[in-house]
């Protein structure tokens, strides 16, 4: 019996070496030692990025030189000289030649401002790019009195209304059709204000 003990120990030794080799091979195939790129982060971003619903507001609308941003109260004051703005207009921006009075200033300040004010308000009227002249023709009777005499300059169609007190201008870009509604109370400088407003409309572009 004793002469078989060395042989038995030798067999056990071989089995132990084989097990060790097997374990080492398994370690070599673990993910930590996998080929480069196997565990790279997945890119789960959607193939098509959703459109920005507010992109139509991202326009260059800085006031013309010497003009200022028109406040909500100032817009309300100028709108008194219009028939009515159609529903569904998306307000974007407004500018004026003279800063409107603040909330603490009285009626006399507003009366003085109104006599010399010229202001223009920008709206998007459609999410489709259309003919600017057609837009002016469509909205002019709804906004002010007078027969439209539409002119087109550098992609902007416009017309004076109510003896020049109101001016309507329209243009289109990739975000839709836009309308500028202007009220000019300073009749002594009517042509100059019309030109400034027209240039403002022509300079409005998507960012």
Strand order of the largest sheet: 1-2-3-7-6-5-4
Percent helix, as a range, is: 25-40%
Q: What is Rg?
A: 37 Å
Shape: globular
**In oligomeric terms, what are we looking at?**
single chain
Q: Which class of secondary structure composition applies to the elements? A: alpha+beta
Taken in chain order, the helices and strands follow as HEHEHEHEEEEH
Count of runs of 4 or more consecutive helical residues: 5
Q: Cα distance, first to last residue?
A: 96 Å
Arithmetic mean of pLDDT: 84
Q: Got a strand count?
A: 7
Low-confidence stretches: 1-17, 19-34
Question: For the report, how would you describe the main beta sheet?
Answer: 7 strands, antiparallel
- Portion of residues in beta strands equals 15-25%
Please supply descriptive tags for the structure shown above:
21% strand, alpha+beta, 207 residues, single chain
Describe the 3D structure.
The structure is a single chain. It contains five helices and seven strands, in the order H-E-H-E-H-E-H-E-E-E-E-H. It has helices at residues 5-28, 72-79, 107-116, 132-143, 190-203, and strands at residues 68-69, 90-96, 118-126, 151-153, 156-161, 166-173, 176-184. It has 207 residues and is of the alpha+beta class. A seven-stranded antiparallel β-sheet has the order 1-2-3-7-6-5-4, with helices on both faces. Strand 5 and strand 6 form a beta hairpin. Residues 1-17 and 19-34 have low confidence and may be disordered.
